[in-house]
Amino acid sequence: MERKIVEVVAAVIRDQDKIFATQRGYGEFKDGWEFPGGKIESGETPQQALIREIQEELDTEIEVGKLIDIVEYDYPTFHLKMHCFWAGIKKGDLILKEHEASKWLTKETIHSVEWLPADLGLIDRIEELL
Ligand SMILES: Nc1nc2c([nH]c(=O)n2[C@H]2C[C@H](O)[C@@H](COP(=O)(O)OP(=O)(O)OP(=O)(O)O)O2)c(=O)[nH]1
Predict the structure, then answer these.
(1) CA 98 to ligand 1: nearest atom
(2) Does the keyword section mention DNA damage (predicted)?
(3) Residues having CB within 6 Å of any atom of ligand 1
(4) What is the DSSP letter of 94?
(5) Residues in Cβ contact with 55 at an 8 Å cutoff, skipping those fewer than 6 apart
(6) Looking at domain 5-129, which CATH architecture does it have?
(7) Cβ burial 100-117 (10 Å sphere, 16+ → b, else e)
(8) Which terminus of the chain has fewer Cβ atoms in its 10 Å neighbourhood, N or C?
């Protein structure tokens, strides 16, 4: 059987030398750290999906910047294709509507949380860009 492809967008919200990470509050990956975002819905561009997801999850309006990378990762039950963009805050205070915790991380602290497996390669790249 063909493995299911899950197409996701994620925002690396940056403020100077810090990036914003969130901890999942429910589901299969509960307690893992990630970049906020979610699944692209049909008819949406990745940028539109990201603006919608961040509004829903964090009650914040973002400006979507450049694509950092498209991460491909094989989880046991699906293949993840994750479009990761730089983002900045336009309006709002990053209120956690779904996540259980959040942190601003720097180059020095970026490895201090337990990232989801698919994010590890990306984290090494971001570390160099901070
Ligand atoms: N948002 C996000 N998801 C990630 C990251 N790394 C990673 O493996 N994932 C995986 C976990 C999930 O299987 C999937 C994202 O789906 P989701 O459950 O957040 O999406 P959603 O909000 O649209 O989903 P749903 O609960 O409404 O079904 O991508 C990451 O850094 N950010």
Answers:
(1) 22
(2) yes
(3) 6, 8, 10, 29, 34-39, 80, 82, 116, 118-119
(4) -
(5) 61
(6) Alpha-Beta Complex (3.90)
(7) eebeebeeeebeebebbe
(8) N
* Rounded CA separation 73/79 (Å): 6
ipTM above 0.90, yes or no: yes
Q: pLDDT tens-digit profile of 50-86?
A: 999 999 999 999 999 999 999 999 999 999 999 999 9
Q: CB-based burial of residue 65 (10 Å sphere; 0-12 exposed, 13-18 middle, 19+ buried)?
A: middle
Report the separation in Å between the CA atom of 122 and the middle of ligand 1, taken as the mean of its atom positions.
Answer: 15
What six digits make up the tokens of 74? 């094989």
Cα distance between residue 49 and residue 84, in whole Å? 12
Which of 19, 84, 116 for a ligand 1 pocket mutation test, highest count of atoms within 8 Å of Cβ?
116
